[in-house]
Amino acid sequence: MATAEVLAKYELTIGIECHVQLATNTKLFSGADNDARGKNPNTVVNPIDFGLPGMLPVLNHEAVKLAVRAGKALNAKIANISRFDRKHYFYPDLPKGYQTSQMYNPIILGGLVEAPLEDGSIVKVRLDHAHMEEDAGKLTHYTDYSLVDLNRAGTPLIEIVSQPDMHSPAEAKAYVTELHRLMTYAGVTNGDLYHGNMRFDVNVSVAPKGAAELGKRAEVKNLNSFRSVERAAEYEFNRQVDLVERGEKVVQETRGWSDATGKTTSQRSKEDAQDYRYMPDADIPPIVLTDAEIEEIQNDLPALPSYYRDKWAKLGLDRSVTESLLNNQNYAILVSEIQDAAGDDTAKRVAHWFSSAVSPEDEAAEIASVFSPEAFIELSQMVEKNELSSTAAKEVFNELLVSDKSARAIAESRNLLQVSDESAIAAIVDEVLADPSSAQSVADIKAGKDKAIGFLVGQIMKKSQGKANPALAQKLLREKIGEL
Ligand code: MN
């Protein structure tokens, strides 16, 4: 592997193509169910999807609407007229002999994604275009035969094609992460990465720094996690620099990625590049959208990540807290609603609870439940009024995530409410002051060494099993010591 010093001599360039499965009920051109998850093979297929003679595709307008939403979330222009073309190739998972796609007049033109990196900087990735197309079926290979499952055939997709604007594995990861957020927030896709709702093809090339031309690129196909995009880009950078350093050539080819080995391997070189014989699909009329129709769909878009980033930057929320909250759209909506209903301080407290509830590992986890703001506002107010310690509040919060009890009911049932009753705390204060082990601290405090109060408060907390209100305990302590 090339050393960091050698790598520094080269410029890495990355462009990404992303297939996004649109969240429609039915397929792009037939009435078959669009959700193939957990279904038996070849049970959600319509003759249109296998291209039986005489079949006539009918365009799913919901898919068009979602494509427009996608384009608007991507800061792109929507074409007033776009068309479908046939892309011919032979493969057993494509019984029609061609994929219906958009080659010449795609629906989404240009676009820009601004993706935040972990260090606080932003990578701006321009988009070339995005087109609508149908998915193919799935082949499963056994030792001496293969089986075809057409459940996915005809599933509506958009393919988002970026410019080669990324120059590090971290930028590639940031881009796909943001793309996933944009597409799920806009309701374009369910975004289930495990089931391939978004799949990334990563084009990687290297060239000596300052070179006028990009190097030959390798395309790593079908990645389905943000982390694997980052790892594959890193691996390819090293592999290609090694080749160039040894005086060998990088070949333009398609490569596969293995999460297990952490390596890419050659699948096919560009020499067997196919001629797809693109031609307009005469069975499908062009998609015609007026500006008014496009605007109507755009006005229907919910808040996107940038809305929350601006709102929470003003709140003074730490950037990392904001970003982890944004991993879960329901959490983002909830915190935003709480901010509107109960103010900044409450929102800030709840934001911290939720951001620590999002594990960085479950990237793009399926959003489980929808919460109502009230329970969390109540919990926050209990902390504000010193009825709960912050540790106890965290415990109540964790139970709120999985139960429908109120915050107070949970705090009571777990016996977590702080004692703010003066006489009860005063009794404990007396007990602690009477203990011989407190004598030194009391003497210290009287001598002006105020730090010693911490030990005494600690004793009170211990005796009250953490439930005494510490501020009140300290106040009473000072009063009593003053009287001694
Ligand atoms: Mn495609």
Topology overview:
Layout: H1 4-7, E1 10-21, H2 47-50, H3 61-73, E2 77-78, E3 81-82, E4 85-88, E5 98-101, E6 108-109, E7 112-116, E8 122-134, E9 138-141, E10 146-149, E11 156-162, H4 169-185, E12 198-208, E13 218-223, H5 226-245, E14 253-258, E15 263-269, E16 279-280, E17 287-288, H6 291-299, H7 305-315, H8 319-326, H9 329-342, H10 344-357, H11 373-384, H12 390-400, H13 407-413, H14 422-434, H15 439-446, H16 453-463, H17 470-483
Parallel strand pairs: 13-14
Antiparallel strand pairs: 1-11, 1-12, 2-6, 3-17, 4-5, 4-16, 6-8, 7-8, 8-11, 9-10, 12-13, 14-15
Bound molecules: manganese (II) ion.
Structural class: alpha+beta
Rg from C-alpha positions?
30 Å
| The number of domains | 3
Q: Indicate the mean pLDDT.
A: 92
Please give the share of residues in helix.
Answer: 25-40%
Shape: elongated
SS strand fraction: 15-25%
The counted number of beta strands is: 17
Sheet bearing the most strands, described? 10 strands, mixed
End-to-end Cα distance: 73 Å
* Ligands, ions, cofactors: manganese (II) ion
